[in-house]
Design brief:
The protein has 364 residues and is α+β, with helices and mostly antiparallel strands. 19% of the residues lie in helices and 32% in strands. Strand 7 and strand 8 form a beta hairpin. The N and C termini lie far apart (48 Å). The protein binds FE2/S2 (inorganic) cluster and fe (ii) ion. Fe (ii) ion binds next to helix 2 and helix 5.
Length: 364
């Protein structure tokens, strides 16, 4: 009797949505999460110790003391250095061993150093570069509205059980919203035909939806009580930014998620929602209160997404592989995969100002 699974993936070539783009920046933590204590994070299975030096600058080193393998994150910060909690070796932000308590001879020898990751702290996030001991080839993403005081920012971090690709696609996928988030965004009832323009650059792809009326769910009503037409753009920016932008009359919302792959199939999501509301909403209800109303709703949506991604990933495990059938209304998923694969191969195309454009129709 054959023991082959009855529904083995039809392709003999294993399919995986896991992508490893290492020559780029990922969010290690929110700035507010990095205090005096070192922080242990994991990037694509690699343990990294992130610490804030006395000067305030963050630094990041491999979370393994070269002396006896103890995690450096269990140590403490001493001035500009990270001190191992076992025998007190001290490492600077570049990973160089600068002190070995009790040693009479020379301290600074190459084999005693620890690999270090470049860091940046920008707009409320601490970023690490994916390759240790490397000079970064580019700079991290910047929030365009972070310092604009007309906008309120709400942040949230949580883990998703899915690959970076699956998590990014989920964040930017329109067709699931009427089903998975029934009643919160869109209703699965009367649909309208709209135009979608997909624009591709060498490091990003975006989809703009034309002619979409205000979503009828609770979120739409809070954001634009008077209704109106929506400007809606979803975009992915290499290697890890998924962004949804809505403009409804005077209301403007940019929800940015930075996705950090903890492993191939576990992704930490750092969300920052920047919003400005119409006068009619904010006159009666302070923006802070609206933020307090929106946050539980947004968390509910995220919880539904997390649940779907977890089930998707567990099913991939049960079937021993991934398989995909896409149609043209899966607007960004295949494009994101193409960008990730190019970047993974080190084959990013040269920059150009004008995007490639394609137009499709869909019912929403
Ligand atoms: S294990 Fe770190 S100093 Fe000994
Ligand atoms: Fe969703």
């Amino acid at each position: 009797m054959s023991l082959e699974p009855r529904f083995a993936p039809p392709s003999t070539k294993p399919v995986s949505s896991a992508a490893r783009v290492l020559d780029d920046w990922y969010v290690a933590c929110e700035s507010k999460a990095l205090g005096k204590e070192p922080l242990a994070i994991t990037f694509l299975g690699t343990p990294i110790a992130v610490f804030r030096r006395a000067s305030g600058e963050p630094a990041a080193v491999l979370d393994r003391c070269p002396h006896r393998n103890v995690p450096l994150s269990m140590g403490r910060v001493r001035g500009e250095r990270l001190e191992c909690g076992y025998h007190g070796w001290q490492f600077d932000g570049a990973g160089r061993c600068q002190a070995i308590p009790g040693l009479c001879g020379e301290v600074d020898k190459a084999g005693r150093n620890v690999p270090a990751f470049a860091t940046r702290e920008l707009d409320g996030w601490v970023w690490v570069y994916g390759t240790p001991d490397a000079d970064p080839e580019r700079e991290p993403y910047r929030h365009p509205l972070h310092d604009d005081d007309r906008y309120t920012t709400v942040t949230q971090a949580l883990d998703m059980e899915g690959s970076l690709h699956a998590t990014a696609e989920n964040a930017l996928d329109v067709p699931h919203t009427a089903f998975l988030h029934r009643g919160l965004f869109r209703q699965d009832g009367d649909r309208q035909q709209i135009d979608v323009e997909v624009r591709r650059w060498q490091d990003r792809v975006e989809a703009e939806y034309f002619g979409e009326s205000r979503p009828e769910g609770v979120l739409g009503k809070v954001l634009a009580p008077q209704g109106g037409e929506v400007r809606h753009v979803d975009r992915f920016i290499l290697p890890c930014i998924a962004q949804v932008e809505y403009q409804l009359g005077e209301a403007h919302v940019i929800a940015t998620t930075a996705l950090t792959p903890i492993t191939d199939y576990r992704t930490r999501l750092f969300g920052a929602v920047e919003f400005r509301l119409p006068v009619v909403s904010s006159r009666f209800v302070p923006t802070k209160t609206i933020g307090n109303v929106l946050k539980p709703l947004a968390l509910k949506v995220l919880g539904q997404d997390a649940d779907a991604l977890r089930k998707q990933t567990r099913n991939v495990e049960r079937f021993g592989g991934e398989q995909y059938v896409s149609t043209e209304i899966d607007v960004l998923g295949p494009e994101i995969m193409r960008l990730l694969r190019q970047a993974e191969r080190g084959a990013r195309r040269p920059p150009r100002d004008e995007p490639e454009r394609k137009r499709i129709q869909m019912l929403v």
